[in-house]
From TrEMBL:
This is F-box domain-containing protein. Residues 22-32 have a biased composition (Basic and acidic residues). Coiled coil: none annotated. It comes from Solanum bulbocastanum (Wild potato). Residues 7-21 have a biased composition (Basic residues). InterPro entries: F-box-assoc_dom_typ1, F-box-assoc_interact_dom, F-box-like_dom_sf, F-box_dom, Kelch-typ_b-propeller, SCF_F-box_component.
Length: 338
């Protein structure tokens, strides 16, 4: 007969997992399991911070983990955070967004070109429904689709997350005889972490009255009319460029010397339009682009397509010519005969 202490100790040790351990298992299984985003594991802020640093393909799979994760990944503030962490989502710099038509079906096709890689077609949510759609953006990972000429059927689309949302319009209608198109722009309020859509009812060039402006907030899901006292004329359906969440337009503005082209931008903090300083003497054609996170203007004349001036805008110093692009000079007469 084994000693009581030693033998009983081993017996108790063996039965501990089978006896008391098994008696507790049904209670654990029957209890409600904590949600993946519950504070039982990590705070929601930590979960969001971790997920925002993952690749897009991984996030698409993680949307199936739970409803909480799916809702978290679909929120605009999370998408903006993920856009800031992931360089693959930043459709800027050398990346070009291309809108075209399919040669057979005539459906609208949206593609992304990132040199030196090949062109990648992006799944458009409305290839058939939007036969004449226009594209605005991207702005913090989002693209805005709409139908001209009055900016209808506005849709916010995130190509990386493969989700979209149609924006309900207000009851505002263009005034017949005064408005001739609606120009759409996008902006981002970094203080409020809010994606904004601007819809401008543009007056004809013969009228010296301000445009009607309304703004949509993705955070509140509502539109509101903005006060606008600046008189200018927009001739395009979209803003010309978006740089660091700021939308810019090339507009026509009248002064004592006549009518001239002027650049304006939408100040997100003040909710007003501002006129940018003029360069002075310019060539015939100007085109706004983004260059290394700065507002850039390409200035050229069709009479001399070989030369182009590149100007960069700075809030302190204004416009400055960065360089001129043109053909390489021929240093030797023998180079010309090759």
């Amino acid at each position: 007969m084994p000693p009581k202490g030693k033998g009983n100790g081993k017996k108790k040790g063996k039965n501990k997992g089978k006896g008391k351990g098994t008696s507790k298992e049904p209670k654990c299984r029957g209890a409600a399991e904590p949600e993946p985003t519950s504070h039982f594991y990590f705070p929601r802020e930590i979960i969001s911070n971790i997920l925002s640093r993952l690749p897009v393909k991984t996030l698409l799979r993680f949307r199936c983990v739970s409803k909480q994760w799916r809702n978290l990944i679909s929120k605009p503030d999370f998408i903006a955070s993920h856009f800031g962490h992931s360089s693959s989502l930043q459709f800027s710099g050398s990346s070009i967004l291309i809108g075209s038509r399919h040669h057979e079906s005539n459906h609208h096709v949206v593609s992304l070109y990132n040199p030196p890689e090949s062109v990648v077609q992006v799944d458009s949510p409305f290839p058939c429904f939007f036969p004449n759609m226009y594209i605005v953006g991207p702005c913090n990972g989002f693209i805005c689709l709409f139908n001209p000429p009055w900016g209808e059927l506005i849709t916010l689309w995130n190509p990386a997350m493969r989700n979209y949302k149609m924006v309900e319009l207000t009851d505002s209608l263009p005034r017949q005889g005064l408005h001739f198109l609606a120009s759409i722009g996008m902006a981002f309020d970094f203080q409020q972490n809010d994606l904004l859509i601007l819809r401008i009812f543009c007056v004809g060039i013969m009228y010296a009255v301000p445009n009607d402006v309304e703004m949509y907030s993705s955070k509140s899901g509502k539109w509101k009319k903005l006060k606008n006292e600046m008189v200018f004329h927009i001739l395009e359906f979209t803003c010309n460029v978006i740089v660091k969440g700021v939308a810019y337009w090339l507009v026509c503005m009248a002064d004592k010397f006549g009518s001239r082209d002027v650049f304006v931008r939408f100040d997100v903090g003040k909710l007003v339009f501002e006129k940018l300083p003029s360069i002075g003497r310019r060539k015939k054609h100007q085109y706004l682009v983004e260059l290394e996170g700065s507002l850039c203007m390409l200035d050229w004349d069709h009479k001399d397509d070989c030369h182009m001036d590149v100007w960069v805008m700075d809030d302190v110093d204004g416009w400055s010519k960065k360089y001129s692009v043109g053909p390489e000079p021929i240093s030797d007469w023998r180079d010309a005969t090759c």
